């Protein structure tokens, strides 16, 4: 057993794998207590956008920590939150007029689901069924698990999960998905929640913008709320600020987290249309939106988010995304010709490939072997079963990207099914 008393997430401690101690970070580099430099090839679980310890964000955190560290947000406000809300309103689709703060991707999804159900309840048309896309992942709280893929992730908690309508992931031209969604929407569900363009934890599964646009149109015709979970895909990961903008889609409710602070602090928001807000607006206190956490809109986290928004506003972030995407495509082209490599794909700055194996999926027996190889090579890559993906901070240089490609090639040639 480990000498530490820490219970780590998504970690089977019984395997006895080492748990490196990281002391500091900068850019794309993580530095360990035993003197190693590790390349962060997955943005520390998809959160670090501009690089670790970005000076503008660090300075914003430092300044705010000495002025106002925490404030109850029920009936009170502060300048950092106001700056973030104003910045989001300027950046995000104009139809999304309201900003509700929370503190993680899972809670932003919980908020979205409650907003959707509250909208229908308070407008006198109660609806309760939620539609989801097959292989989705939306978080690990009860509501978020309920709208995610059922399986090893949540099997022990099945008694707590509510029933949902599952729409099949697109195959071929996506007709299977559109026909199933059309049929399900005829029964007047409350909402359809989707990860736009890329299903993250499901294995970096990708589908085209035109299909997202077609799904959104079906929801619109049937008056079904569309919830876009852009917790992972937002803040540039797919090459644009939001993935949904590539499809010309404006969701009714939008979930944002991870990169909202540049990856420096936990913070999330759920943005909604004005009529969803107005469904809860009343002189009747029983119709208020009953959701909060102690650290809702924490001022320090909001200061970090405001700095991130300023970086997006004042620096050529989109140019960096385009450059990184092109370099990652070159990486994929190199790896695509290796034996046993399949389904090579990219969306913006997310590059992925599968290793051909008889036991695919998250519990593939290849995953622990790959994880060990990558760790020993001082590259932070965390395969999703037999899927290897690269999602680095946008500041990664050519040398580090080449090193990542070298390590993946070594792994592909070494670890055979």
TrEMBL record:
<keyword id="KW-0093">Biotin biosynthesis</keyword>
<dbReference type="GO" id="GO:0030170">
    <property type="term" value="F:pyridoxal phosphate binding"/>
</dbReference>
<feature type="binding site">
    <location>
        <position position="382"/>
    </location>
    <ligand>
        <name>substrate</name>
    </ligand>
</feature>
<feature type="binding site">
    <location>
        <position position="229"/>
    </location>
    <ligand>
        <name>pyridoxal 5'-phosphate</name>
    </ligand>
</feature>
<dbReference type="InterPro" id="IPR005815">
    <property type="entry name" value="BioA"/>
</dbReference>
<keyword id="KW-0949">S-adenosyl-L-methionine</keyword>
<keyword id="KW-0663">Pyridoxal phosphate</keyword>
<feature type="binding site">
    <location>
        <position position="45"/>
    </location>
    <ligand>
        <name>substrate</name>
    </ligand>
</feature>
<dbReference type="GO" id="GO:0005737">
    <property type="term" value="C:cytoplasm"/>
</dbReference>
<keyword id="KW-0963">Cytoplasm</keyword>
<dbReference type="GO" id="GO:0004141">
    <property type="term" value="F:dethiobiotin synthase activity"/>
</dbReference>
<feature type="binding site">
    <location>
        <begin position="293"/>
        <end position="294"/>
    </location>
    <ligand>
        <name>pyridoxal 5'-phosphate</name>
    </ligand>
</feature>
<feature type="binding site">
    <location>
        <begin position="105"/>
        <end position="106"/>
    </location>
    <ligand>
        <name>pyridoxal 5'-phosphate</name>
    </ligand>
</feature>
<feature type="binding site">
    <location>
        <position position="137"/>
    </location>
    <ligand>
        <name>substrate</name>
    </ligand>
</feature>
<protein>
    <recommendedName>
        <fullName>Adenosylmethionine-8-amino-7-oxononanoate aminotransferase</fullName>
        <ecNumber>2.6.1.62</ecNumber>
    </recommendedName>
</protein>
<feature type="modified residue" description="N6-(pyridoxal phosphate)lysine">
    <location>
        <position position="258"/>
    </location>
</feature>
<keyword id="KW-0808">Transferase</keyword>
<feature type="binding site">
    <location>
        <position position="292"/>
    </location>
    <ligand>
        <name>substrate</name>
    </ligand>
</feature>
<comment type="similarity">
    <text>Belongs to the class-III pyridoxal-phosphate-dependent aminotransferase family. BioA subfamily.</text>
</comment>
<comment type="pathway">
    <text>Cofactor biosynthesis; biotin biosynthesis; 7,8-diaminononanoate from 8-amino-7-oxononanoate (SAM route): step 1/1.</text>
</comment>
<dbReference type="InterPro" id="IPR015424">
    <property type="entry name" value="PyrdxlP-dep_Trfase"/>
</dbReference>
<dbReference type="GO" id="GO:0004015">
    <property type="term" value="F:adenosylmethionine-8-amino-7-oxononanoate transaminase activity"/>
</dbReference>
<dbReference type="GO" id="GO:0009102">
    <property type="term" value="P:biotin biosynthetic process"/>
</dbReference>
<dbReference type="Pfam" id="PF00202">
    <property type="entry name" value="Aminotran_3"/>
</dbReference>
<feature type="site" description="Participates in the substrate recognition with KAPA and in a stacking interaction with the adenine ring of SAM">
    <location>
        <position position="10"/>
    </location>
</feature>
<feature type="binding site">
    <location>
        <position position="258"/>
    </location>
    <ligand>
        <name>substrate</name>
    </ligand>
</feature>
<comment type="function">
    <text>Catalyzes the transfer of the alpha-amino group from S-adenosyl-L-methionine (SAM) to 7-keto-8-aminopelargonic acid (KAPA) to form 7,8-diaminopelargonic acid (DAPA). It is the only aminotransferase known to utilize SAM as an amino donor.</text>
</comment>
<keyword id="KW-0032">Aminotransferase</keyword>
<comment type="subunit">
    <text>Homodimer.</text>
</comment>
<dbReference type="InterPro" id="IPR015422">
    <property type="entry name" value="PyrdxlP-dep_Trfase_small"/>
</dbReference>
<dbReference type="InterPro" id="IPR015421">
    <property type="entry name" value="PyrdxlP-dep_Trfase_major"/>
</dbReference>
<dbReference type="InterPro" id="IPR005814">
    <property type="entry name" value="Aminotrans_3"/>
</dbReference>
């Amino acid at each position: 057993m480990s000498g530490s008393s820490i219970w780590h997430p998504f970690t089977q401690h019984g395997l006895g794998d080492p748990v490196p101690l990281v002391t500091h970070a900068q850019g794309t580099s993580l530095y360990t207590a035993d003197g190693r430099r590790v390349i962060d090839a997955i943005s520390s679980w998809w959160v670090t956008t501009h690089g670790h310890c970005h000076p503008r964000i660090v300075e914003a955190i430092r300044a705010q920590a000495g002025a106002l560290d925490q404030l109850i947000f029920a009936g009170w406000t502060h300048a950092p939150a106001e700056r973030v809300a104003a910045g989001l309103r300027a950046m995000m689709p104009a139809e999304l007029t309201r900003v509700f703060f929370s503190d993680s991707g899972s809670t932003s999804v919980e908020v979205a689901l409650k907003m959707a159900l509250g909208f229908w309840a308070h407008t006198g048309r109660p609806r309760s069924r939620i539609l989801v896309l097959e292989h989705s992942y939306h978080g690990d709280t009860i509501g978020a698990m309920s709208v995610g893929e059922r399986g090893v992730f949540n099997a022990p908690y099945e008694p707590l999960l509510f029933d949902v309508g599952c729409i099949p992931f697109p195959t071929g031209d996506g007709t299977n998905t559109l026909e199933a969604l059309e049929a399900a929407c005829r029964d007047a569900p409350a909402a359809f929640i989707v990860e736009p363009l890329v299903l993250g934890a499901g294995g970096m599964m990708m589908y085209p913008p035109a299909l997202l646009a077609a799904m959104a149109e079906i929801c619109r015709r049937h008056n079904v709320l569309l919830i876009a979970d852009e917790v992972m895909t937002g803040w540039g990961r797919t090459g644009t600020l939001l993935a949904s903008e590539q499809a010309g889609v404006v969701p009714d409710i939008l979930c944002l987290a991870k990169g909202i602070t540049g990856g420096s602090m936990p913070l999330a928001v759920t943005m909604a249309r004005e009529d969803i807000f107005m469904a809860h607006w009343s002189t009747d206190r029983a119709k208020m939106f009953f959701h909060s956490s102690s650290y809702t809109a924490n001022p320090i986290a909001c200061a970090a988010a405001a700095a991130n928004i300023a970086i997006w506003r004042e620096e050529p972030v989109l140019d960096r995304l385009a450059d990184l995407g092109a370099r990652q495509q070159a990486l994929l082209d190199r790896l695509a010709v290796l034996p046993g490599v399949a389904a090579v794909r990219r969306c913006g700055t997310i590059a992925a490939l599968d290793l051909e194996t008889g036991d695919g999926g998250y519990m593939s027996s290849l995953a622990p072997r790959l994880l060990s190889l990558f760790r020993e090579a001082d590259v932070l890559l965390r395969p999703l079963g037999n899927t290897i993906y690269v999602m680095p901070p946008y500041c990664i240089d050519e040398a580090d990207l080449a090193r990542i490609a070298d390590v993946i090639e070594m792994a592909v040639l070494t670890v055979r099914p």
